[in-house]
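Batch job 17 of 40 flagged for manual review because the log was empty.
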Amino acid sequence: RIVVGTILSRPPQITRDLTDFETAYFAHRQEAARASAPVFPVEFYFKKGSEMERVWKRRERGELAAEEWDALRSQIDGQRVEVTPRDALFDSKDSRQSLNRALKDNLYLVVKRDRSRYQWQFPQGGLEADELLHQAAKRELAEECGRDMDVWFVGRRPVGFHQYAYPAEHIKACPEHDGAKVFFMRAHIFAGQAKVDGKEAVDFAWLTRQELAQTFEPDYYAAIKDLL
């Protein structure tokens, strides 16, 4: 049986944290740039003994920067400033359906089926007569997750496939197919939110790649991990 699935992702909203190596590298680059920069001709721009020359020298020694910071601190002293953490809501399991989490990572939409195995997977479904892969992907995504999402499909060609055999009890009940080949289409969400139909899918979540590895069945994750 030919099946099409959608790998729907929300791209990162903020830049990721720098590694220790990257931090050291950029610090080295900045220091090297200062060391190799041509000497600023102070005597050309500032008259000797002038106030502007004294301000320049104080700024070069770092004295003026400290005074400016103290002045800024005195202006905001007493005001309550709350900084939103970069990993907002990331540790809350209640937020697995929120798109405002794991802001520096990709999030992927997964749906839950009402069965004992392979409960969590990407939205997917079989092709109907004379239907193309990208058409089936859009239809199945709308049927399972609603039409309240602004979604863009990257292309009309699948990015990969996963083939598996049906269990014996399924083949006995539906002997016309002994397995499925799932072709995956890639898409991005720009706005909106998923709303499962409660029939084909009973729940949904937006998960990071690391969370997918903990949620999917091992063989299913092994088949799709290189497509993320």
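Reviewer: the log was empty due to a logging misconfiguration, but the result itself is present. The radius of gyration is 28 Å. Unflagging and moving on to job 18.
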